[in-house]
């Protein structure tokens, strides 16, 4: 089967950073699905895993954690899917990724593809949808059916992949959403997704928020630069409020203000369930089912913003390069395998 892999961790402008390879077709076991991959999306995690370091892989390593495709075969213990099902999923950081024509993935972290979306549109959703859903509803404890009243939520990084989904989920949950964006095109993007207010994260946040009547936020989601936004977030979070972040810090984060406010910090990492094989791992299957329902009912839209074809090492390197600029809006998707390299 065709795949795109790495054996060394190199800068993206090196033609050997991601290479076209041919590998053996994998065989499903236990709760595995063998999926024929039709489309893949690229996320910051791909670029972070691929980032240069002194390490050599003895066998080709396949990255990629966003895909949509068709189930070709199933393992002996599979009960949720059957061959022919159209699926979408983010996968497992500890296994081979989706940048291949066929991939093994545990059924418990897979959902049926939204019927109203094509494969490219569907591939843009899983990783960001799982991350945003878990951040809002598992880590912050908000109710997806809107039973929390109308609390205020600040989303830092509103135009990014996770932020773009989080805005929509927060509006489904009836929150008062403030999203950050700094460029005209990103301001327009988050506004179209449903943000009630937009503030510029490159300017001091407090005066902008006070101008719209918000002295404190009930909840804050940091989807970009935890270090850079930490002091503003701790200043703005209400006493006994909660901050959730998905971005690892590089420096110590002062806890003095958090302690004084009895505020909470929650971490979200969507690979936790699959990495540790948690007892509630199947929750991601159910979560993706709910995402698909919202999409098919018109309450949630795919955030794909660019589709590149075909799926090849050259095009995947270009997608990584665009992600590494830090200026991409929405999701970048690759679809369709070439007949030959």
From TrEMBL:
SUPFAM superfamilies in UniProt: GroES-like, NAD(P)-binding Rossmann-fold domains
The Enoyl reductase (ER) domain, residue ranges: 13-334
Superkingdom of this protein's organism: Bacteria
A Pfam family it matches: ADH_zinc_N_2
InterPro entries per record: ADH-like_N, ADH_Zn_typ-1, ER, GroES-like_sf, NAD(P)-bd_dom_sf, Zinc-ADH_QOR/CCCR
Entry keyword annotation includes Oxidoreductase: yes
Keywords per UniProt: Metal-binding, NADP, Oxidoreductase, Zinc
Molecular function GO labels: oxidoreductase activity; zinc ion binding
Family label: Belongs to the zinc-containing alcohol dehydrogenase family. Quinone oxidoreductase subfamily.
Protein's name according to its UniProt entry: Zinc-type alcohol dehydrogenase-like protein
Protein source organism: Stieleria maiorica
Species lineage: Bacteria, Pseudomonadati, Planctomycetota, Planctomycetia, Pirellulales
């Amino acid at each position: 089967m065709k795949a795109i892999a790495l054996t060394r961790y190199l800068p993206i402008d090196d033609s050997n950073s991601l290479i076209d390879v041919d590998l053996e077709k994998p065989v499903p076991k236990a709760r595995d699905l063998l999926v024929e991959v039709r489309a893949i999306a690229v996320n910051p995690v791909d670029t972070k895993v691929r980032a240069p370091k002194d390490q050599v892989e003895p066998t080709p390593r396949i990255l990629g954690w966003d895909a949509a495709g068709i189930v070709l075969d199933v393992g002996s213990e599979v009960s949720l899917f059957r061959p022919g099902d159209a699926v979408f999923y983010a996968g497992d950081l500890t296994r081979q990724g989706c940048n291949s024509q066929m991939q093994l993935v545990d059924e418990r972290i897979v959902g049926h593809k939204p019927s109203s979306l094509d494969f490219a549109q569907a591939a843009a959703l899983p990783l960001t949808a799982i991350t945003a859903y878990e951040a809002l509803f598992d880590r912050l404890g908000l109710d997806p059916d809107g039973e929390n009243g109308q609390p205020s939520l600040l989303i830092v990084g509103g135009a990014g992949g996770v932020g773009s989904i989080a805005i929509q989920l927060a509006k489904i949950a009836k929150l008062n959403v403030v999203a950050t964006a700094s460029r005209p095109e990103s301001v327009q993007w988050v506004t179209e997704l449903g943000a009630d207010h937009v503030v510029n994260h490159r300017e001091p946040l407090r005066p902008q928020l006070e101008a719209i009547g918000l002295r404190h936020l009930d909840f804050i989601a940091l989807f970009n630069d935890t270090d850079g936004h930490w002091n503003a977030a701790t200043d703005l979070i209400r006493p006994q409020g909660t901050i959730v972040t998905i971005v690892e810090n590089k420096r110590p984060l002062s806890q003095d203000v958090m302690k004084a406010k009895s505020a909470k910090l929650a971490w979200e990492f969507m690979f936790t369930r699959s990495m540790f094989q948690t007892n509630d791992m199947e929750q991601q299957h159910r979560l993706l089912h709910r995402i698909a329902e919202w999409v098919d009912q018109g309450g949630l839209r795919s955030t794909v913003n660019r589709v590149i074809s075909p799926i090849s090492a050259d095009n995947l390197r270009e997608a990584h390069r665009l992600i590494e600029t830090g200026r991409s809006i929405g999701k970048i998707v690759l679809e369709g395998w070439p007949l030959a390299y």
